[in-house]
Amino acid sequence: MRRVTFIYLTFFLLAVTWPGFTLINRPTPIVLGLPFNLFCLAVLILAGMGVLYALYRSEGRR
Amino acid sequence: MERWQVIAAVIVGYLVLTLTIGLVSGRGASKSVQGYVAGDRDFGLLVMYFVLGASVFSAFAFLGGPGWTYSRGAAAYYILSYGVLGMAPYFFIGPKAADLGRKFGYVTQAQLICGRFPSKILSLIIALMTLAAFIPYITLQMRGAGIVIEAVTEGRVPIWLGAGAAYGVVIIYVLFSGAKAVGWTNTFQGLFMLAIAWTLGLYLPISLYGGVGEMFEQILAERPELLSAPGLAADGSPWTWGGYSSAIIVSAVGLMMWPHLFMKAFTARTDRTLKRTVFLFPTFQIFLIPVFLIGFAGVLYSERPPSADFIMPFMILNVELPALVVGLFCAGALSASMSTGDALLHAAGSVIVEDAIGPFRKMSDIAQRRLIQVFVLVFGAVAYFFAVSGSASLVVLLLTAYGLICQLAPPIVAALYWRRATTAGVIAGFAAGSAMALFFFLTGFFGESLRPFDLHEGVLGLLIHVPTLIFVSLLTAPQSEAHSEDFVGNSQ
Asked: What predicted TM-score, i.e. pTM, was given to this entire model?
């Protein structure tokens, strides 16, 4: 799970900085009331939480 | 009762409640330094979660966040982008630091670094740097509290009185109850701010535009430049991708290196608590979204606040809310300011005594605790003086603080994970990185910016810091195996 976490965080870093973010950097369509880029950020953060939770489940109880 | 009196009464009620929680929470704490600085290493999940989360919701996020979306639009997205990245390493570093804390009795970050790399000078430098970053930070929190109170009471309670009352309460509970008070008041204040942020963040767009989506559609029609990253710079011109991206990196590296946050590793009851705090922390990033909506709601509003940072109290006062509700919102903003300010004051006193004075002079446990309390009072007074006199240059100090604070990351990582790192390497790297960051900051501040690609000076500092640390370490004699094994070699 450490590997998955590492890969996801690297992906996250690339996705939120230049040039990765330019791919999702559009205000439309407006999803759940939020501009598309802000909505994508929220999804990335929630997915990050999921990955960290999985990491915790796999080894946090030690 | 007049409107402002109702608002003032709500604020007084909130302050009394906070003070009570602060004083009651400290009753069970031991009188030792561990009790005062690290809460007897006995914080559970709820308190840890809010202690770390409340720091995200500082006056910067609560007042500055809406100010950013209001004036700079999508530039504020960077604030959402670094939380997960910055917190994740703490899943590993936190428990490891906590473990060493229990083993060697550490209560501060510099004690951990200088435990592995023994150097009194390094300890002193870290302590002074912490203080240089903290004083302007505390000042801004105090000023924020004073400004909010002055605004909602229509000037009847001036800044000096509002800031004095709010921080009088903070000083009393920090003095008497130490870390326990910081923990439990932050829990109360955290819950309070969350409720306020969500209510206001949804209420404003709905009442002014008919909905959150409708608000963004109107902004898109009139000010589309605000909805695409990297948004606008402070002067209203388009921000650069280099500036935006490196702000994310510096903040991610620096986030948990702020001494008042890192130290909290030593307050957790168990490793499990720390790890759960890490995976729950991103919820606070999500909670920032409604705070952003407050700022966006002001974009198309016909009247303008005196400055972007006032957008939140400005909107609250301009949408005709009942006095009781305004009072509660104001208390929410005070919560944001006080929950960060108390942790900073407490950490500033602790760091100066433990890291700047402790290595040079042996003191009894009781004398240390007393001296920390004296310094909490002194720093509170100094910050109050700056807050009331309104010295603008302090903002400048704070802007560069992140660049310096993130230079604490390489020494921490080296201390915990690299056997071959040496004291000389760490000092050389730290000095080179900080000097580099300061150079680019000062040249930019007094003359033309020399930063390539508009990169943050903290990133430029790290680019020199890490190679210097590695090279000088490899050139100097390795530490004894038993010593480095104590720090690097455990299961985490």
From this structure: 0.88
